[in-house]
Write a structure and sequence with these properties.
The structure is a single chain. The chain starts with a strand and ends with a strand. 4% of the residues lie in helices and 47% in strands. It is globular and about 55 Å long. The mean pLDDT is 95. It is mainly β.
């Protein structure tokens, strides 16, 4: 699996403004080809910040409803390194079994057979290292899945970065209050450095 590195730079003046407004750096990943609805990472920045991650995922289930600000508590999960192109099943006991044949190429699949609820929240999670601190098991996606239905989860290495207050990592974000900057990785791009532009609220790619 490939290693990816994102470097994020701010000036002293920008840091003071961010601190005074209780704003944090938010990172999210694409969900179903669209903009993120989960804050994968959220942190207070320094002048120079580095985020490292490997493109490996785990699968989790939660009874958290996908409402803004809700923390995604993982009730059952498959460890990092879950298999694509296979089918996992959330059993009536709450255990996730598999992988079995089925699913879809280059995607993760889970069949919901948990009959105690009409639907359950399912998503992918991914570890990262933020400014030298390991952040484990933070969700990158969350979607409600009906009983007897199968969800297909296609991972993406495209990142979104923005600034926002009162948003924590591993939580649902349905309202974004500042511009998002899309950062495309892959295709030979494994490292990217960006700086914040105060006038536009966007991040400018430096390399």
């Amino acid at each position: 699996m490939s290693d990816y590195i994102l470097t994020i730079n701010f000036t002293d003046e920008q840091l003071n403004d961010i601190y005074n407004t209780d704003t944090r750096v938010i990172l999210g990943k694409q969900a179903g080809g669209g903009e993120p609805h989960v804050a994968w990472q959220s942190f207070n920045p320094f002048q120079s910040n580095q985020v490292n991650w490997i493109e490996e995922y785990g699968i989790y289930v939660s009874n958290t409803q996908a409402q803004h600000g809700a923390a995604l508590t993982q009730l059952s999960s498959i460890p990092i390194g879950a298999a694509t192109g296979k089918l996992y099943t959330l059993e009536p006991s709450g255990v996730i079994s598999g992988p079995d044949t089925g699913g879809m190429a280059n995607a993760f699949a889970l069949l919901n057979q948990y009959s105690n609820q009409d639907y359950i929240t399912v998503g992918l999670y991914q570890d990262a290292i933020v400014n030298g601190i390991e952040i484990i098991r933070n969700a990158v996606s969350a979607a409600p899945v009906l009983l007897a239905s199968t969800t297909i989860m296609t991972p993406s290495i495209t990142l979104y970065i923005w600034l926002q207050s009162q948003v924590t990592g591993n939580s649902v974000v349905t309202t974004v209050t500042s511009p998002m900057t899309e950062l495309v990785f892959g295709g030979g791009i494994s490292q990217t450095s960006v700086s914040y532009d105060t006038q536009t609220g966007m991040f400018i790619i430096q390399s």
